[in-house]
């Protein structure tokens, strides 16, 4: 089914980024970002070492109007020229989701445009198709502060979960390890920076679930091992911190490589006709260079086409929400103005939740 080009406004407020963007989807399904503005609330939350829901919701209320106006201005469009209004409707912090979704409903109602209530995880999952010509089905590894999962993306709205974390998300593990070592929030970039000066062989941290036949993850034991090491060391020297970061990253890299090998096998078993499957890695942790090397090696070894979106589109943003909205609109999947925000909303609803996945209030 071909369509005329569409222009979609996207709004993202599910965690600690307030974001608005406009994307264009042409008749051939190719995407273009016309504007993409993000306001991070990092400074507001940093003193607390994590995201504080009430502060997040209040900051969304203060900034969203201005960001939407800026996104529209940069795109050079009026609301009349939009073909739809998309907003994250979950999963995430309910207070924040409500702010963005309500704003989208108001714009849709005032200008008589379709509303697209987007699953934030679907935003991450479809970003690759905004950037490149990627056919369904493909393998998605989502590694963020709130989610760590393998999905087969069969189509828009059609997901099959292969594996997930049974406790902490990978980004959360980076953040907790950073906290144990006295580093700032968010922890991932700090751990990565210190690891560069460290010895990855100094501490023999566990490789959780390595060798298992499924492709689930677990990071709480690894985090505990780091905590025990920190306690044993007592006062930490700069070299101790660097070595702990490097050893932690080495354990994560080896674990992810092992879990990925199983996920690829599962994907190939499900779709034997796909010769060179695409592997899309999304979420903030995808910015980690050590993990990027793991993905590149795995792509070579398993014959995959690797796509890691640029960091700006891997971390939370509204272009991915606008794009998911555009893909949904092209299929006629529009939503009613009564659509309710959802704190929990797994992509693959056919599967039972696993403890720890899609946790209430977690970053997505
Ligand atoms: O996708 P994201 O921006 O937000 C959501 O969780 O939705 O991901 C944030 C997570 C944080 O836990 C952060 O510590 C982690 O991504 N992260 C990293 C790196 N950059 C961000 N983890 C490891 N290495 C990095 N370079
Ligand atoms: Zn996210």
Kindly summarize this structure in a few lines.
The protein is α/β, with parallel strands linked by helices and 364 residues long. It has helices spanning 42-45, 53-75, 94-111, 120-131, 170-180, 187-195, 220-233, 238-270, 289-302, 311-314, 319-330, and strands spanning 6-12, 17-25, 31-40, 84-90, 115-119, 138-143, 148-155, 158-164, 278-282, 305-307.
Architecture overview:
This protein is α/β, with parallel strands linked by helices and 364 residues long. Helices cover 42% and strands 18% of the residues. The protein has eleven helices and ten strands. The protein has helices at residues 42-45, 53-75, 94-111, 120-131, 170-180, 187-195, 220-233, 238-270, 289-302, 311-314, 319-330, and strands at 6-12, 17-25, 31-40, 84-90, 115-119, 138-143, 148-155, 158-164, 278-282, 305-307. The strands form two sheets. Strands 3-2-1-4-5 form a five-stranded mixed beta sheet, with helices on both faces. It has a five-stranded mixed beta sheet with strand order 8-7-6-9-10, sandwiched between helices. α5 (170-180) crosses α6 (187-195) and α7 packs antiparallel against α8. Residues 356-364 have low confidence and may be disordered. The structure holds 5'-O-[(R)-(carboxyoxy)(hydroxy)phosphoryl]adenosine (KG4) and zinc ion (ZN). Zinc ion (ZN) binds at residues 120, 124, 144, 316, 364. The site of 5'-O-[(R)-(carboxyoxy)(hydroxy)phosphoryl]adenosine has 22 residues, from α5 and α6.
Layout: helices, strands, pairs:
Layout (H helix, E strand, L loop, with lengths): L5 E7 L4 E9 L5 E10 L1 H4 L7 H23 L8 E7 L3 H18 L3 E5 H12 L6 E6 L4 E8 L2 E7 L5 H11 L6 H9 L24 H14 L4 H33 L7 E5 L6 H14 L2 E3 L3 H4 L4 H12 L34
Helix pairs in contact: 2-3, 4-11, 5-6, 5-7, 6-8, 7-8, 8-9
Bound molecules: 5'-O-[(R)-(carboxyoxy)(hydroxy)phosphoryl]adenosine and zinc ion.
5'-O-[(R)-(carboxyoxy)(hydroxy)phosphoryl]adenosine (KG4) binds next to helix 5 and helix 6.
């Amino acid at each position: 089914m071909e369509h005329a080009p569409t222009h979609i406004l996207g709004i993202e407020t599910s965690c600690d980024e307030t974001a608005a963007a406009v994307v264009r989807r042409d008749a051939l399904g190719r995407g273009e970002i016309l504007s993409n503005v993000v306001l991070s609330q990092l400074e507001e939350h940093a003193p607390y070492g994590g995201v504080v829901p009430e502060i997040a919701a209040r900051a969304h209320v203060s900034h969203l109007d201005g960001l939407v106006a800026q996104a529209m201005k940069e795109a050079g469009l009026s609301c009349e020229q939009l073909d739809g209004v998309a907003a994250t409707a979950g999963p995430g912090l309910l207070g924040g989701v409500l702010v963005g979704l309500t704003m989208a409903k108001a714009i849709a109602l005032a200008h008589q445009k379709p509303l697209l209530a987007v699953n934030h995880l679907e935003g991450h999952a479809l970003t690759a198709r905004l950037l490149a010509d990627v056919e369904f089905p493909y393998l998605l590894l989502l590694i963020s502060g709130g989610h760590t999962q393998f999905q087969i993306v069969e189509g828009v709205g059609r997901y099959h979960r292969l594996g997930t974390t049974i406790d902490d998300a990978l980004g959360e593990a980076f953040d907790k390890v950073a906290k144990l070592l006295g580093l700032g929030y968010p922890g991932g970039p700090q751990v990565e920076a210190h690891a560069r000066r460290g010895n990855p062989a100094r501490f023999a941290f566990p490789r959780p679930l390595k060798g298992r036949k499924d492709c689930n993850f677990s990071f709480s034991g690894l985090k505990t091992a780091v905590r025990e090491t920190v306690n044993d060391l007592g006062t930490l020297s700069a070299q101790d911190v660097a070595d702990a970061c490097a050893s932690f990253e080495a354990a994560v890299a080896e674990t992810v490589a092992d879990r990925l090998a199983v996920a690829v096998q599962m994907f190939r078993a499900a779709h034997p006709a796909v010769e060179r499957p695409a592997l899309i890695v999304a979420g903030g942790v995808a910015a980690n260079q050590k993990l990027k090397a793991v993905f590149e090696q795995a792509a070579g070894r398993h014959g995959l086409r690797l796509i890691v979106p640029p960091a700006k589109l891997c971390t939370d943003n509204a272009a991915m929400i606008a794009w998911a909205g555009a893909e949904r609109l092209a299929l006629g999947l529009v939503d009613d103005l009564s659509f309710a925000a959802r704190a929990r909303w797994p992509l693959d609803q056919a599967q039972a939740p696993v403890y720890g996945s899609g946790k209430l209030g977690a970053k997505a």
